[in-house]
Amino acid sequence: MKEIRMVDLQGQYERIKPEVDKGIQEVINTTTFINGPAVKKFQGNLENYLGVKHVIPCANGTDALQVSMMGLGLEPGDEVITVSFTFVATVEVIALLKLTPVLVDVYPDTFNMDLDALERAITPKTKAIVPVHLFGQSVDMEPLMEIAKKHNLYVIEDNCQAIGADYTFSDGSKAKTGTIGHVGTTSFFPSKNLGAYGDGGAIFTNDDELAKKIRSVVNHGMTVRYYHDDIGVNSRLDSIQAAILDVKLKHLDEYAEARNKAADYYNKAFADSPKLQTPVTADNTTHVYHQYTLVTKDMDRDGLLEHLQSRNIPCAIYYPVPMHLQKAYHDARYGEGDFPVTEDLSKRVISLPMHTELDEEQLKFIADAVLEFVNK
Ligand SMILES: *Cc1c(COP(=O)(O)O)cnc(C)c1O
Rounded to whole angstroms, how far apart are CA atoms 219 and 336? Predict the structure, then answer.
């Protein structure tokens, strides 16, 4: 059996090697390392794939979030609502910009933002909402956008984990996650569903004015060379990364299919186990399984983690400490017990290997090892 990895980028590369190598070589041959034609080409192809007017490439997903907030003109003291059950970047950039993070709980089944909690958290100071499409499925965007409209709030979708997922509105129309709010963000970190061979990120919007502003912010606040109208940052996607991403974009839907196939295998294997809650996908979204995350019940989660690791099966806890209990984000407003679902999940979730290269032999080995511990 092939070695089991949490993410197998090597096996994936071997299948696309000629195309990727050619793309990299072209950038080197033309020495257009920064803002070269490869970046424009990828940008256009991603705009088409997502059905969005503007894609603005940048250096990573964290920058994408920060630059979005700068582009929207959010100011110190403005409240931005997001979830406590997320990767740190979401809360980090809010804090860095001296905005006020306001945290809310998530639903126990989808792990995504609880919309009743969202409504309760809105105050006259609230300016924006950052829904996080966690693990690969969409937040319930239609009611979220209605809440945002009612209270005149911006919506910045953190789509770092769900690129390619489709959300279906009540009238049957569909949209890709990240293109529904005022602005969407993604990360091309290597292990993400559309991963580069280094860092990368992008911002999406259908708003022409906002796109112009964000393009300026990522480029030192400059639209005319050496004239700086905004305070900006330096955040670019390398041409070499863009060339690689352009190849992988063509395979993104097929990658999502492979992830769904692996998830189906796991789901079937664990269906009869009362101690494991398999991932729940909401009716109005597809799932691109950035992570395959189980919720353990009445069992020693960390024992399961150790058991799998002892069999050379990598696995991980996303996320072991909610944002409101992190030292860096300690805030007198929040304490233990404030977000019961998030706190409970952080103690009970476990994510299994999930990538595009898992074969049936590996999946069986992983599922058997899980069940061996669970049925012990
Ligand atoms: C990965 C990730 C980010 C940050 O992306 P980087 O490219 O690593 O900066 C932000 N939010 C979420 C939810 C993520 O998963």
Answer: 41
Say yes or no: 263 and 240 in one domain: no
Q: What is the pLDDT along the chain (376 residues), one digit of tens a residue?
A: 999 999 999 999 999 999 999 999 999 999 999 999 999 999 999 999 999 999 999 999 999 999 999 999 999 999 999 999 999 999 999 999 999 999 999 999 999 999 999 999 999 999 999 999 999 999 999 999 999 999 999 999 999 999 999 999 999 999 999 999 999 999 999 999 999 999 999 999 999 999 999 999 999 999 899 999 999 999 999 999 999 999 999 999 999 999 999 999 999 999 999 999 999 999 999 999 999 999 999 999 999 999 999 999 999 999 999 999 999 998 989 999 999 999 999 999 999 999 999 999 999 999 999 999 999 8
Residue 4 lies in a domain: no
Q: Looking at the structure, do residues 266 and 314 belong to the same domain, yes or no?
A: yes
How many domains does the chain contain in total?
2
In 3-state terms the chain splits into helix, strand, coil percentages (rounded to 5) of 40, 20, 40
Closest CA to 12 of 307, 366, 357: 357
CA–centroid distance, 189 to ligand 1, in Å, is 8
What would the two tokens of residue 12 be? Answer: 């994936």
Pocket test for ligand 1, best of 69, 130, 189, 238 (most atoms within 8 A of CB): 189
Same domain (yes/no): 21, 140: yes
Residue among 79, 56, 32, 10 at smallest CA distance from 240: 32
CA of 159 to the centre of ligand 1 (A): 9
**DSSP 3-state of 169:** coil
Single residue among 188, 221, 249 that ends a domain in this structure: 249
Q: Are residues 236 and 360 in the same domain?
A: no
My answer on whether 99 and 229 are in the same domain is yes
> pTM value?
0.97
Distance 240 CA to ligand 1 centre (A): 20
- In the chain, the N- to C-terminal Cα span, in Å, equals 25
- Domain closes at, from 249, 271, 298: 249
With a Cβ cut-off of 6 Å, ligand 1 is lined by 60-62, 86-87, 89-90, 132, 158, 160-161, 187, 189, 199, 201
The enclosing domain of 30 has a CATH number of 3.40.640.10
Range of the domain at 325: 252-374
Q: Which of 62, 139, 193, 233 best tests ligand 1's pocket when mutated (most atoms within 8 Å of CB)?
A: 62
CA 24–ligand 1 middle distance (angstroms): 24
